Amino acid sequence: MRKPAWQRLVPAAAAVLLATLGAVALGTPPAAAAVPDRLGFVLWNGGAVVPTGTTPAATTVTLIGVGRYQVKFPGQGIAGGVVHVTAINAVAHWCQAEQWFPSGVDEIAYIRCYKAGGVLDYTAFSAIFYRSSGPSPYGTYGYVDANPGGGTISQYNAAGAVNTVTHVGVGKWQVKFPGIGTAGPKDGSLQATAVNSATGARCNIANLASTPAQQDVFVYCFASAGAPLDTRFTLTYQYRPSLYGRAFAPKYYGYYHWVPGAGPASTNFNSQLGFGANTPAVAGVGLVTIKFPSIAFLPDTLQVSTFGTVPNWCSLSAPWQHFGTDTVAQNVNCFTVNGTPVHYGFFASANSLQ
Prior knowledge:
Keywords: Signal
Shape: globular
Number of strands: 26
Signal peptide: 1-33
Structural class: mainly beta
């Protein structure tokens, strides 16, 4: 949301102090109480870690085989949490999580990346890990790490409720986030990532229904050739907070839903400018640029997830860019199951550490 005029006129340090005092006066806990417990993200350009898209700064990526990578987030080791990953390649590629776990004080995540046809292959990618606990005063936010047969390995709900995952068919699940409802019929943003260490897998957000009681999400997952697949997956829901759960000034983030065509205004949010501020532009078949104005504060990360019921998929054709204070995803690229460019739906979420 755009800051009040008085807050934009005072020095930055004073603005933070006044915002904190104002929150206390309104009965809202200060920002120090916000999630997450641990956070790490990384931008890998195919040969090196890119500092502008990485935190902690000492995060490393090690190639351990064709299309397989080990990511070490120093000092972020903790049980639970979720991983999301997005391939970055002009040619049809996708990435999935393999596993993640604490190793001493560090968090280790393994990533697998494929090209069309289900063959492991080298590619650039953007990955993020976070873990949260305890109720959060900052609104509608939650995640699940889901078992293939239903139920959760770990989960988080900002309202303190228990999220549920129900297996409703081969490669199909219904995920409910109770207690973090919105007006509806479709509000906020989602990210979904397949988790599989044995075979290529992709997961799509098939549907989102928002009600005052809960968020009701359907997730469909597919094998490389497009057949429905029972697999572990992660899913994160955000409405106003960032993808990793933090919210409000001075945090800089935004999300956008492409259907294809613009989604509802309530699925287009910018932390500095409010709803409807992020703008798309079709750049070619299967290519869509998304501009997130006023949030380009580094380091930052960007994730893309596919929206739809067939085994198409979406990723990034190149790393996001910064023009002044604007962050630009240039471009999100979508493909059919055989790697042909196609217009398709997606959710994009851009998030700064600041």
